[in-house]
Amino acid sequence: MARQLAKNAQIMVSEDGVGEPTLLEALASWTYDKSKTEVDVTGVYDANTKIISGKELSAKLKLEMADEVKTFPAKYGRVPHLVVILVGEDPGSVSYVTGKAKASAEVGIRNTTIRKPESVSEAELLDIITALNLDDEVDGILVQLPLPEGLDEEQVLEVIRDRDAKLAQADGKIPIEEFEYKVRRLINDYIRPPKNEYKLDRALWWMDRFKKELRTDVRIANKHDLFKAYEVENIIHCAAMSALASKERKESRWGLWHMRSDYPMKDDEHWMKHIVLKQGDSFDDIRISYAPIIKM
After folding, report:
1. Distance between CA atoms of 83 and 139, rounded to whole angstroms?
2. What is the spatial distance between Cα 286 and Cα 288, in angstroms, rounded to a whole number?
3. Considering only CA atoms, which of 294, 219, 282, 288 is closest in space to residue 249?
């Protein structure tokens, strides 16, 4: 029954703009009857209400989109390109992705489907999305949900949302080139040895500020700027981890790079341990733990 209703679905819209509340009231009053394949809506709408066929509207919109897509090669040099990522063989997902490919062909949009097995790692999936983010020939990315168990849907979708958010900063006040220079300069000022608590704290303060500025103030006008933004973001993240690890070593050892001006002596009692940095629940959540050194 549900399939039949979906196939014959119609939308009621009132010319005076009051049709929607009437429709909602009608939906609230309907009851499910397994013996019927249609719903009687007599009296729900008045003479000013139009009946719009969803099927006819869909066909009309596809024709309009196809006409517009035909103008893209002359305007932009190519048609839009949609990439769909399908993980696993869920029947519903396969059917939906197949429908997307068919609809893309009907309107003239280039469609590519990347299929991966359920065993694909989250790291590989994120690498695929990141590469697509930087591809000038890709205009849209669709990750088909649900993902198989073991893959973090929110983490995967965040990579796409982050790309969209960065590309929305075309009017940012700081050019990405100037921002990168400032980041590298201050890392050199505060993390370069000899190190001390004050310099490392200042480094972490600046890295937090840079993370915020990268999300709000940096100008990202195209895919080239986006690539640079990803690069600088990784530089900031690595610098923050370096500063955090250096703060845990309150001694000087192993030459210049591990020189602490505020802790000039070796500390054998606290030295024999590994400092382990792991990412927590978010990109900015860096957690510190220790692991013993195995003596041979």
Report:
1. 8
2. 7
3. 288
First to last CA, the chain: 72
Q: Is 168 helix (H, G, I), strand (E, B) or coil?
A: coil
pTM for this one? 0.63
Helical ranges in the chain per DSSP H:
2-7, 19-29, 54-69, 72-76, 91-107, 122-133, 153-167, 176-190, 197-216, 223-248, 268-271
Q: How far apart are CA 182 and CA 4, in angstroms?
A: 62
Residue with tokens 């940095």: 277
Q: CA of 85: how far to CAs of 81, 109, 155, 192, in Å?
A: 13, 16, 15, 43
CA distances from 261 to 186, 193, 251 (A): 19, 9, 9
**Residue 46 corresponds to which tokens in the numbers above?**
């008045």
Which whole-number Å values give the CA distances from 2 to 36, 38, 200, in the listed order? Answer: 10, 10, 63
Of 186-195, 259-268, 275-284, least confident by mean pLDDT is 275-284
Token look-up 């999305």 returns 129
